[in-house]
Amino acid sequence: MLDALGYDTVEALVQRAVPASIQVTPRETSDIPPAATEAEALDELRVLASQNRTMRPMIGLGYYDTFTPSVISRNVLEDPSWYTAYTPYQPEISQGRLEALINFQTMVTDLTGLATANASMLDEATAVVEAMLVARRGSKSTSNVFLVDADALPQTRALLHARAGAVGVEIVEAELSAGYPVDESGTPVPAFGMLVQYPGATGRVWDPIDVAAVAHGAGALVVAAADLLALTLLRAPGAFGADIAVGTTQRFGVPLGFGGPHAGYMAVRSGLERQLPGRLVGVSMDAAGHPAYRLSLQTREQHIRREKATSNICTAQVLLAVMAAMYAVYHGPEGLRAIATDVARKAQALADRLRSYGLSLASDSFFDTLRVSVPGSARRIIDRARERGYQLLWVDDATVGVSVDETTTEGDLAAVAWAFGLPEGEFLGEGEQGERAVPFAEAVPLAAVPASLMRTDDYLTHPVFNTHRSETAMMRYLARLAERDYALDRGMIPLGSCTMKLNAATEMAAVSWPEFSRVHPFAPEVDVRGYLAMIEQLETWLAEVTGYDAVSLQPNAGSQGELAGLMAIRGYHRANGDLDRTVCLIPSSAHGTNAASAVLAGMKVVVVACDEAGNIDLDDLRAKITQHADALAALMITYPSTHGVYEHEVLEVTQAVHDAGGQVYVDGANLNALLGFARFGDLGGDVSHLNLHKTFAIPHGGGGPGVGPVAAKAHLAPHLPSHPFAQRADHAGGFVFDGGPISAAPYGSSSILPISWAYMRMMGTAGLRDATAAAVLSANYIAVRLRDHYPVLYAGEDGLVAHECILDLRPLREATGITVDDVAKRLIDYGFHAPTMSFPVAGTLMVEPTESEDLGEIERFIEAMIAIKAEADAVAAGEWPADDNPLVGAPHTAESVVDGDWAHPYSRETAVYPVRSLVRAKYWPPVRRIDQAYGDRNLVCACPPVEAFA
Ligand SMILES: *Cc1c(COP(=O)(O)O)cnc(C)c1O
Predict the structure, then answer these.
(1) Minimum CA distance residue for ligand 1 atom 3
(2) What UniProt keywords apply to this chain's record, in alphabetical order (predicted)?
């Protein structure tokens, strides 16, 4: 590889590629310990795990223990064919997860009683904020008030307060069960939207139908944050007038994980579907006329609408959405109803028992959660429960909360009753006062819930929810879907900007350990010391490698880290009295999330031009800085740039912004090109997000989960994310954050942090540096080998690229008519996932091999790209017609070549075995090319009838 590039050592190559002015000399002392072996890292993780106490959480507040069916944990959560896949932007090789996601959408629409659901939100609290923004766009009211149920989850209320100001919304809390608030004259207060929690945070089940009607009369849209398990028994939000339903699907078999990752959900009534944020799967058609799934409206948010975007969601929670959907597929409607009934019965049995001893409840109408009145003794009861291994919720000195879930046993109920002072044995039916015992099995579920609130309609009637009832059938269904998808377990996914590196098995191991997975996010500090120690180490290590002072791991994706970082900049300017600093400069080449996040942080986006070499146009930057001098809040840049180039002028750029009083945000998505060689903090960055699911080995999960830590210099630290339930106020380095929450859980998607911890622990600083060097070497090798076939669009001063390279396919199109789409689809026939298409430049492919691909796989890719170029040349030479050749016909299914009337001018062998090695190693796409133009409006976004596939 070095010979092809003309360098003697990898070090020499990278020294040349990375501008000398920004390079750091490797540190002599480091907080990052020298690399551990796999066995050592696992041993250390076991010690950390043992410092978490495995208690039985009965805290509730949107998080419940659940049984993950083993067939799902083994065949989805722990199966690389699911967890190493990328977001389904290439639908032909993503039919398996797209089907799983359409199951998810169908599950959510059925249970919520609304028309259309998307394929996952980041968590419940952020989904409520997104719903608030949908309501504002959908409402005709000119009010800026969003009415919030006083009985909404406390973390949701905190997040709403933290986010509302930046987008000009006023949050007004009201006791909605007492009716819609009115002014002195009895007129309903104006609002564009209203949030009801159903059932409430206190567990109360009440009927929002009247308050929803008044809200509609006042021009407000109604958002219901609803518990999906409760909805199997209770009337659906769509039936009481909700326009939007949101929530979490955590309790559908997704482990608690100290807060995540979990899939949130959103569903809307018809008329609002085009306002849905995030991803939406629909049924389209392939070139052979067969139904096939694809994302609809897929690029609108990130790549087209930019500053007009209404949501910044990019990485979502696909793997967890798949798990939740499969939980519903496996249990089916009867199974879910039985689980919910069992939960309600257990809660009822406990309530009956407590009341029979004279205790009273805040509400007698509940599903799974009780608020028990215990004047003066809440603390003592909670301590007694802890003695027996149970975590209850301290509400105030006079109130204890208890939430029951599918894992709760009679023994658990007896122990909890004992904590409240009741004789334990009796509860189990062994006592002498048998007449006062309420046998668990005889309790009447939902005894005090009015009949009008009970659900009477059918749901999940589609065959997919009624077929896979045995473990054998379920295992085969999951294998069948995985077989249709191309993930890292099959070959390279050279997606530029996405860093699809190895997710090593050792790194993944701890995710499923119960000490990490069955932990409630609001558990007391003493129960989660292992987690907190790991988090503090990771914060320290990430601060060191990025050159920042403080790190928050709370954001659930890169986009959320961006938002947190920009909110910190906003908070900083405001604290300095600079209320007018609201302009955010963003280069035209930026990722779409940048502009969207700026808008959500209340900033005005001003685009800075790029020159022909792909670098920021310094003259334009200076002009824009001068023009907006007093209003300048921030510059957002990506380094190395999204063009895959180390811009030499970066220090001048950041200096110019600082001189004008602005802050510098460095998008850290390309950190895999820099780690160990340069640090954002040293480049003049004030704040960055990292993508642990890119640079730090967390798998992409088919489009999530992710972790997007935000890292900042000390002056911004006070404005980084905080959380009302954080177990500790301070972070590594002693910093205390006070920016308000950016996620529902204090440490975000904690259960996948062991992956990045293990990655860093096993790499050490030297290993991280080596990985960068290998990634840069591989990208440059591909660039040099393909240069004669496809022009490499941008390069630095020495003709070198960073960790990715952009191949320009526009000349090919001019010469041969073959498009970037044709090449991407033909790569499927060769057994590859296409590189990133048309980002950041239309008509190009951006290739990022990462350090994880060996030379054999890289050569296979180069060979395929060269062969494809030759095929295109053959088209140009007239050997094959422009409208009938292996490129425009790609991808080829098995069915397409067994067709008896094969009438193409190229052979069947050319179609499916263009290189010999494929004969023994073929990935067969399940569908032919999917029509992207087939109108989004026509897409059906729920499971299609089985006959469609006949
Ligand atoms: C991936 C990416 C993002 C967004 O990160 P998510 O984790 O997907 O939200 C932002 N900027 C760039 C340059 C990226 O590549």
Answers:
(1) 558
(2) Oxidoreductase, Pyridoxal phosphate
